[in-house]
UniProtKB/TrEMBL annotation, chains A, B:
The lineage of its organism: Bacteria, Pseudomonadati, Pseudomonadota, Gammaproteobacteria, Pseudomonadales. Signal peptide: none annotated. The keyword Oxidoreductase does not apply. Pfam families: AsnC_trans_reg, HTH_24. GO terms for biological process: regulation of DNA-templated transcription; response to amino acid. This is Lrp/AsnC family transcriptional regulator, leucine-responsive regulatory protein. SUPFAM superfamilies: Dimeric alpha+beta barrel, Winged helix' DNA-binding domain. Residues 12-73 form the HTH asnC-type domain. One of its GO terms (cellular component) is cytosol. PANTHER family: LEUCINE-RESPONSIVE REGULATORY PROTEIN, TRANSCRIPTIONAL REGULATOR AZLB. One of its GO terms (molecular function) is sequence-specific DNA binding. SMART domains: HTH_ASNC (SM00344). Keywords: DNA-binding, Transcription, Transcription regulation. Transmembrane segments: none annotated.
Amino acid sequence: MIATNDKALARIDKIDRKILEQLQKNGSLTNQQLAEKVGLSASPCLRRVRTLEEAGIIVRTVTILDHKKLGLALTAIILIGMDRHTPERFAAFEEQVAAFPEVQECYLITGQSADYMLKVVVPDMDHYHQFLLNRITRIQGVSGVHSSFVLRRVIDSTALPLGYLS
Amino acid sequence: MIATNDKALARIDKIDRKILEQLQKNGSLTNQQLAEKVGLSASPCLRRVRTLEEAGIIVRTVTILDHKKLGLALTAIILIGMDRHTPERFAAFEEQVAAFPEVQECYLITGQSADYMLKVVVPDMDHYHQFLLNRITRIQGVSGVHSSFVLRRVIDSTALPLGYLS
DNA sequence: TCATATTGGGCAATTATATTGCATTAAATA
DNA sequence: TATTTAATGCAATATAATTGCCCAATATGA
């Protein structure tokens, strides 16, 4: 069964785009504030937001926390290679990785030297070491692991570029 | 001038942790819904949320959009090496990269083969090609570029692991 | 153990905000 | 230009956030 409306490109006019831009920056704007910013009155603004939600263009809103203040000072980028490129290997890997709360992102990627790219958040290097040894390297099929550590976050955003819509 | 309270670890009790867990999953919960989920009445719940905001633990709330429905089907992971590791080179690079809306993440990282890791979102491969040629490789000091493309998003979250707070 | 202080929670009134129906206006179509 | 269609704004209503005040629980110190 193939999903039918996943790729449906919606027609987004200038006002919709403004709404999305605002909400990407600040999802806790009140509808009234949002309406003012996009040059609409409250009710049509709210209706547009609801429509964007129902269309699945607005997926959800999330609260962003400060990792340092929560004692999570270390972010690691891990590139992982698999020994065999079979669906079973991949499925098992993904299932296990999805159960680790330290993993913020996990992408299957193209490239010769790696199959997966992970972004992992932990308190410090000790915990990272434990995580790598007790979690990642224990997964069947993991053959190569390369770790990099984030020294500075130049950009850390969830916003999509909306300039291509026009 | 060194920031003083950036690292201040807050004491987060069980209820605060529940609040943060809920809001990380769903930032558009009403205060009443949140209060019920964490076992509090509305007013102390709201007071706790405000306190967490003032402490900077809650940074902001953002709306997540569906990239496919917005015609942004290609996500690339780019590893970039710089010719010289001088503060001027890095500053200039970061300033220019920060101006590209396609760049969702840009981290200065450890590692022998790369200095920066970027996550970039564009409509398709043509646009990616243009972006690489006209934007990235034109930045002074960029000496090596390696691109990977996201085939599948296994995990794509903004949630931090709160299990270490114990 | 008991008295006291301090912190946090709950209730209820108030204020602000979201939501809905309906008339109106603007835009699109022929 | 007449007609249809879609979207907007206003106003009334329903929900939710916010605040002040009192009470309960926990911590503190004799």
